[in-house]
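Work through this:
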Amino acid sequence: MAKWIKTNFPGVRYREHETRKNGVKRDQYFTIRYKLVGKDREEGLGWASENWTAAKAYDRLKELKENRKAGKGPQTLAEKREVEDKRKEADKEAQDLADKESVTFGQYFEKVYFPTFEIGRKKDTTRKGKEHFKNWISPVIGNIPLKDVKPFAIEKIKKNVLAAGKTPRSLQYVFATIRQAWNMARRDGLVLGDSPTKSVKIPKVDNRRVRFLSHDEAETLLKALQTKDHLTHDLALLSLHTGLRMGEMASLKWSHIDLDRGIIRVMDPKSAEGRAAFMTEKVKTMFEVMKRREPGDYVFTRGGDEPLKDTPREFSEVVAGLGLNNGITDRRQKVCFHTCRHSFASWHVTAGTDLYTVKELLGHSVIAMTERYSHLAPGTLQNATRTLERAIDNAGQKKTDAGQVVNFKQ
């Protein structure tokens, strides 16, 4: 067996074919090496005679690493090949459809757009996309040729969605599904111009959650979770005390936990910029009693090596058992797992922490995202109004006192 030879590109090596030549040199077979879920992995790319080079191999390795950091797209060569194969199949379907005179929106959605859309996406995301098409899009424009879909048809979809009692936010998602399919069809040369959704206005959306837990409610919730499921309790406690997102906690590894300094290093968060989260004493104690594993192991698992994929169902079960959402129909008022992060921010604002500091603690990319919490501290805002009122009264009193002094001297 030919020996492996390192290249100048980290993670890339090759072996030479014993007899076959590529030009004047022996043909070279390139592979890439990386870690996946804490384990070494090596995958073959191809031969130099197939136009592979060390530089191209390294570019592919970087692409996969970036996908793993972002948490989307293919993360292994096998997945990459699957995506490329499905893309080729979708492209062929698109070409076949383009050869026909009238490709309907429904044909294109089901045969070309959706098979590509669902690659690498969560099941819940693809399920919602299917529901948007089946419930709202297909009944109106499913049988209309792509090129004939006009804004008035989109207005009808809008009317149907809102008449069914769905929120403007739901309408936004339906429009997004239409727009994404349209943009792909435009890429394939089947339509021209912007999506017809662009000409249809959507009612203003105020999707800000206004519900946050009181300290007593949080304590009650944590006690119930402790009885129900220890892992879910720890996740809720950590989010309530640090503001971490569920995805950020699921990605935590033991190398990110610094008990000596009381710091949690949040790597590759939603905002794409890492930050430090700071432990309270309760959080520190929680980590101290947990069984510490290898630095590259995930902190929160169900006993295996894989990170958590979703919020544990035990959380919603306990919330239901406590009746925290009884009688509440407005989703902005309902308690969900994100309420823990929301409560963390709200407690800070109520306690007088300035918004810029809250922004940094939450890891928001822009202050505008944090400003939505300013209305969640009515006591703080009321106190500010009272402070202004006192200042006005004091100014008036000083003026009156000054007038009395002048009159006295006269």
About this structure: Residues 405-410 have pLDDT under 50 and may be disordered. DSSP finds 15 helices and seven strands in the chain. The two ends are 113 Å apart (CA to CA).
